[in-house]
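Contributing new complexes? Match this layout with zinc ion.
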Amino acid sequence: MRIFLMFFLLISALFSGSFKLKRWQEGETFGTYLTKHHIDSTKFYNQIDPDDIKFLSAIQAGITFFESSEGGKLKEALIPLGEEMQIYVFKKKNGYGFDIVPIKYKVIKDTVTIKIKNSCFTDIKKATNNPDLATYLNKIFKGYVDFTKLKKGDTVSVKYEQKSIKGIPWGEPKIIGAYIKSQESEYFAYQNKNGYQVWSNSNLLQKVTKVAKKVPALYKSFNNPLNKMRITSAFTYKRWHPILHRYRPHLGIDIGAKRGTPIYAVADGKVVYAGWMRGYGKVTKIDHGGGYISLYAHQSRILVKKGQFVKARQVIGRVGSTGRSTGPHLHLGVYKRGKPINPFRVLGKLVLIKGGGTIYKKVAVTSKNLAKDLPDKEKKLYNALAKISQTKPFIWKKFNKNIQIHFENIRKESSNADRFKLSSKKGAA
Ligand SMILES: [Zn+2]
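Output block (do not edit by hand):
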């Protein structure tokens, strides 16, 4: 019943009123988020299962999330915690409710072709209902094709994948290959391990040779935070809670130890947080570079300060049971570019922080006959895209056509938060 109800709520949420995709700002906490929406935080926190409160501090700056409002007030918010679970805040009769629910998205794979009528950007947006696709295509072809100079009748074909939630594109599109045919030239881009390669038969492009540059690698060794690693709870994005009968993520590992046991920094870095966090108690966060941050929760004592540089294996605190905890243990979280990862992906390993290998400059290869000169694997993709570009324009059916996506000028927004606004026609469900 509960699941059914939630499903219904989610559907009705996405098909009524106006939804916005927002970005979680640097420095924003769940507390400041509630204040911003004039929500009584004491009342809000009191109704939450204390076990769940720690998730509120696990929201990572920079992630995008859904928000809807009604009469100037927050109606619903869906805030992802990693790839699979999300925080769900919704307006109730009296105040606001809270839950953690799975993120249900589909990955849509398709190949589309567009004949230019007005401008490349508006035509792609109109045909695909995908607000980011043209922007990402433009990035790939930057320096080779000027999208503003494509003319009426030119064609653009693209093979790509897009995550979608209830018919709304979610996250960045992943472009596998793209083909542009203008009156004078053909352009073809594909992805390989060095990034995107652009090929063209245009005489306007100068023949560019590959520029390779060796970048010295910086590795850091990540060590265990405690001498004895007695794991009491493993990392999982989605754990079935036997008592609550709901899914809950555990975004780190729990290591059982006596109160007062020294905690070591897993690698050298800079302390970026040292203090109290709801649910997590006394917490230290260390930035190791390369997008890696480690988090140590439930400490009895914090022995470092924000801004301080620490060495690997330096004692940074003591094991305790502060915050929401049933006994002394260390909760260790590791984040890579804001996303929680299993700490065992780095513990006991040499982790690449910077450089390491060859960086290729994006290159364009000019060729009289793309179909002949391309590598075998790419030839297939090229042929498929070149062929589809001769068919009639594709009408996108996979994204919900009742949902209109409006771009907003980011610079105009003081909050810098809205990337685009989503709204749907009434009664679309
Ligand atoms: Zn834990």
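Reviewers usually confirm one structural detail per submission. For this one: Confidence is low (pLDDT under 50) at residues 1-17, 207-211, 400-429.
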